[in-house]
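Hi Y.,

Following your request, here is the sequence exactly as I used it, all 143 residues.
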Amino acid sequence: MTTFHINSVTELKDVSVALLEQLQDIQVVAFDGQMGAGKTTFIQQTLKAMGIEGLEGSPTYSLINEYDSPFYGKVYHLDLYRLNSIEEIYDIGIEELLYQKSICFIEWPEKMVELLPDNTIWVYIRINEDLSRIITIKDENES
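Below is the corresponding structure, written out as tokens. Let me know if you'd prefer a different format.
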């Protein structure tokens, strides 16, 4: 488990690098945080660190954005906020995305926690009273 105290968006680059170093064989990263915590901003910074340009923002309406990284291959950014049931999550083809050789960044993963692979990395983002953030990166296989 690694924890960062972030005062500015500019500090996210180092956190993104730390996350990417943890990936290795792990393909799924679940982002947990309240609305406005900075999940999308962190994912976008991580996508930039992966060499991806022309970012599309949060896939709130499209649900899934697909990218090609010159270093990591296919990368998916899923935003499940607007989905209301596990059936809707199945309908977007989630199983196919989770178990292929591509990286999936998932916002609002609590809506499908039972479908996530055992080796999912969790990123917890919490807002402090001074509006700084605490970001914790945890591999669920860690004790």
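Residues 7 and 42 are 13 Å apart (CA to CA).

Thanks again,
Q.
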